[in-house]
Amino acid sequence: MRDFSYLRAASVDAARQAAALPGAMLLAGGTTLIDLAKCGVAEPETLVDITHLKGLNGIEVSERSAIIGALAKMGHVADHADIKSRFPAVSEALWQAASAQIRNMATIGGNLMQRTRCPYFRDPANFPACNKREPGSGCSAIGGVTKGHAVLGTSDACIAMYPGDLAVALVAFDAVVHLGQSQVPVDDFFLLPGTTPDREHAIEPGEMITAIEIPGSASARRSTYLKIRDRQSYEFAAASAAVGIEFEADGRTIRDLRVALGGVATKPWRARAVEDALKGKVLEPDAVRAASLLAVEGATDHGANHYKIELAPRVVARAILKMGETA
Amino acid sequence: MTLELSLNQQPAHARQGSSIGQPLTRRDGFLKVTGGARYAADNHPPGMLYAVLAVSSIARGRVAALDTEAAKAHKGVVEVMTPKNRPALAIDPDAKDNPFMFRLDLLQNDQVRYPNQSIAVVIAETLEAATEGAALLSPRYEALPARVGLDGAKSFVPRGVGIGGPAVQHKGDVETGLRSAKTRIEATYETPAQYHNAMEPHAIVVAWDGDRLSIDTPSQGLAMAQGRIAGLFGIAPENIHIRSPFLGGGFGSKGMISGPQVLGILAARLVGRPVKLVLRREQMYGPVGHRAPTRQTLRMGMDGEGRLTAIDHHARTASSTFDDFFEPAADASHTLYASPAIATSHDAVRLDTGTPLFMRAPGEATGSIALESAIDEAAHACGMDPLEFRLRNYAEVEPMTGKPFSSKALRECYRQAAETFGWASRPLQPRLMRDADGFLTGWGMGTATFPALMFQAEARAVLRSDGSGLMETGAQDMGQGAWTAFAQIAADGLGLDIDRVEFRAGSSDLPNAGIAGGSGHTATAGMAIHNAGAAVIARLADLATGNEASPLFGAGNEGVLARGGRLYRRDDESRGESYAEILMRAGLTEIEAHGKGAPDPASQETYAKHAHGAVFAEVKVDPDFGQIRVTRLVGAFAAGRVINPRLVRSQYYGGMIWGISFALHEEAITDRRSGRIQNANLAEYHVPVNADVPSVEALLVHEDDPYVNALGIKGVGEIGITGTAGAIANAVWHATGVRPRRFPIRIEDLLG
Predict the structure, then answer these.
(1) Distance separating alpha carbons of residues A52 and A62, to the nearest angstrom
(2) Where in the sequence does UniProt note compositional bias of the Polar residues kind (chain B) (predicted)?
């Protein structure tokens, strides 16, 4: 038995204070933490249980924004009528994430803290080298089984893929993470591996996600999440795209376009080059397909994951064209 | 319906059974859905300790050091078992005298032969302490490079494949056949290593009492397990009591006792207390068997009418470095398609993996996906419809041996399944069908076949003076429905309603029911039950017909029928009496008799015995993404007599879903540097989820077989995989024009 302390936080402030202790980790749905503890990646000395904290599981949707409490369950958010109508990409991303059982347990705040499924990261007993776990120890994935590894945002230190779906939709629509009083754009919340792949999130000890805010927009309202994979459910994306679109009054010229990719990058990947190439243009299939290739500019593969570079632009193009059709 | 059991052993298939043929629901279903069914790991004898395996990180080399002191110092750890203190065994764990046993890794030395091999066992008061103790062992290794992949070592021709069949066989001259052919095809297909992944992990709860052993462990072959353990520990088999009332799946991996199970027994001996050992999911990728990878090359020649002139089927496979199981993939070409020349051959490499093993349709599944793909390629090369091509090459006798089939309703399977599926409107060329959403749609088919095997089994039947009956055989229910199907056979065998029959199974102190494997359990143990029933009824009839006080006096055995707990005169059914009356008059509380089930050697010589089927598949493929979804499966199967249509259909569904799994999902992915499998968990080792399983239809095609056994039973457990996997691959080709040559078929294979 590996002993740890269990602490039931009495308030958000108490949780923050406890989480600042060395070796402390917050426990919400537990679907990632328990899993990582079992495979020896997470070794918390103190578990700070926040599941019972009041006021953190709300879902408030207005014209301006959606504010989703950190403890709202993935399944509840996916099924929320206003999220479905005003932020369909968010709902669809959640529906296609994980399994029904996990969605019923996992929280939105915890979802943002989900870690990579890189099999080398998850297996410290057999692969001691992992820069994400042990800075400077090396990367076991490079040269190994790389079918599920990233082609965008990689570094010599780490090629682990960000596996989630929700955050891909969030980054497309400029969502913001609430850390109590302070706020961080989701795009900045997730960090590139660079030389410090052990640092994945812009969050410090003693900080805690309290909510996610997604600004309302016409492009968010007309949005979708397209996820491609070999298995119909309970599989991480081979490639996915969150796309939202807003047309000018003519119904053909693109006023605003949001594109983000999942399943291909080390973090939720905003594809601004695609957006910029098409904004102000008339939506037209060949132009969309050509612009979508910009989604994987600078991509590098590690053999078995090469297909993601082929696949991702096609997913982006399909999602954009699909949103163009649904006038 | 009533049973009319004549005592002259009239073949049962000609009778109308009262319980046999009924779609009864599972008798154990209520227990299972309410959590009342006690599986091996649910047991908790007083004083029990938990054992956890420490397993090897490396694929090959030796364990140089283990920190046993650190493990022992951990709170709750009672003992650490290593090669230094492992209790003695009566025989060498590496000895092997028949194909139905593993060479075992039982801490006999410090050598490592594959990843996840057991290198120590930590025994503790709690599961958590044992788990942490195992982690604290911090092994150091001297590692050698891992040999991985089908080209990872020098190949050789094994002495035997499967359970010892010849590795190389031929009939006629394949090269001549190919030369004379008007059309030829040649293609190579690769199938990956697959792991059984039964939902219930291998588990054992064991208690020693002197030299007696009490064991709860899932087993597909109780008597075999008992014999294996007896041999290893040098004790009498009857001193070992194994209970295995329910298995959470086996699929072959629980057919033979595995190393971890024996280590549980050794751990209990070492500490002198009961012990529970349960494998973690990732620990099942190594010591409990797997389906070996194959690379198969098929060459076929066809004359101007599309008749095969030659089939050449070669398979490369792999085994471990220390044991011999060779996937008999090429043998699939022996039984299905007529050809004047057939050659099959195998070669193999030895790799640093656990030993491969029987896995649901071993050889048949791997061979079938390659053969059915090649047949589809051959049909296309001849410009023929795949069904027409198969009918053109329909085997009227077993192709390799020339033996007549004991029965073969395959034409009817083709007809019914094709009609139900709507095959007739299929365009010959690929990539011509699209649905309303723009998905490429393809239709493919495959032929299913599996041998009708029988092993050896015994049963004991009892009739009691209260009018009830008892049937005992140590049968194994691994989810297929043995508790129900055997009770149905027992009821008919005893001439009783099923609710008057107590049926006992799942325990090694009952008569040997043989193994639940090879799709032969129902036929084998079913015949033992049937014969035991007939024998005890004969004894009962003797009591009645020989007693002047009985209304049956003088009727003779042949003149008596057994039905609903009564014996009747055949010539006058108004004259009869109950079992209870007969026994009470004779002053007996019960009578018993034994029966055996075994293949009939004479008919084995004369007939080829196989179940058959036809499977049709529809797939939809996204033209841009190569994402494949199976949308429809229709199978029709003829497998002799159906004991319980509900259970049989369920077996076909399970097999067909496994076919989806084989074609599109399952694959163990190995890190070539370390030899370790990198997806040893159910999140990343994929099997179909519900959303991947479309409309599945299984048609039961009537088939009378007077030769397989008196009950006319073939087997249904494995056939559903064969045919289905190939049908899906062929449908993918028909949808896309891309011929799958590597399985499972992935997005990246179709991106183009």
Answers:
(1) 26
(2) 1-22
Enumerate residue ranges in chain A where pLDDT < 50: 327
Question: Residues 6 or more apart from A301 whose CB is under 8 A from it?
Answer: A146, A151, A308, A309
Q: What fold, for A5-49? A: 3.30.43
Question: CA B423, CA B443: separation in Å to the nearest integer?
Answer: 8
Of the pLDDT bands very low, low, confident and very high (cuts 50, 70, 90), residue B5 is very low
User: Are the C-beta atoms of residues B339 and B308 closer than 8 Å to each other?
Assistant: yes
Amino acid residing at B352: D
User: Helix or strand or coil: residue B62?
Assistant: strand
Cβ neighbours of B74 in A, within 8 Å: 1
- Interface contact B629, partner A, CB < 8 A: yes
Cα A103 to Cα B19: distance, rounded to the nearest angstrom: 45
Q: Cβ contacts (< 8 Å) between A146 and chain B: which residues?
A: none
Determine phi and psi for B288, rounding to 5 degrees.
-120, 20
Q: Classify residue B706 as exposed, middle or buried by CB count within 10 Å of its CB (0-12, 13-18, 19+).
A: middle
Which of B483, B11, B77, B70 lies closest to B246, judged by CA? Answer: B483
Q: Assign B550 to helix, strand or coil.
A: coil
What's the distance, Cα to Cα, between the start and end of chain A in Å? Answer: 59
Question: Does pLDDT of B556 surpass 90?
Answer: no
Distance between CA B505 and CA B507 in Å, rounded? 6
Contact criterion met (CB < 8 Å) for A234 and B689: yes
Nearest Cα to Cα of residue B529 among B579, B583, B485: B485
Nearest CB neighbour to B129, from listed A1, A145, A311: A1
Question: Which pLDDT tens digit goes with each residue over B488-541?
Answer: 999 999 999 999 999 999 999 999 999 999 999 999 999 999 999 999 999 999
Exposed/middle/buried for residue B263 (C-beta within 10 Å: 0-12, 13-18, 19+)? buried
Q: Is the Cβ pair B57, A2 closer than 8 Å?
A: no
Fold of B5-37+457-597: Aldehyde Oxidoreductase; domain 4 (3.30.365)
Class of domain B363-369+382-453+604-750: alpha beta
**First-last CA distance in chain B:** 60
Model ipTM? 0.97
Cβ(A249)–Cβ(A327) below 8 Å: no
Chain B residues inside the 8 Å CB shell of A119: 678-679, 684
* Per-residue model confidence as pLDDT tens digits over B426-448: 999 999 999 999 999 999 999 99
Angle between helices B521-545 and B482-494 (to 10 degrees): 20
Task: State the fold for domain A59-113+163-325.
Answer: Enolase-like; domain 1 (3.30.390)
Say how many C-beta atoms besides its own lie within 10 A of residue B297's C-beta: 17
Mean pLDDT of B636-650: 97
| CB-CB neighbours of B279 under 10 Å | 25
- Closest CA of chain A from B731, distance in Å: 16
The minimum CA-CA distance between B121 and chain A, rounded to whole Å, is: 16
Chain B residue numbers with beta carbons less than 8 Å from the beta carbon of A43 are none
May I ask the CATH architecture of the domain B40-145+198-284? 2-Layer Sandwich (3.30)
Segment (H or E) for A60? strand A59-61
State how far Cα B190 lies from the chain centre: 22
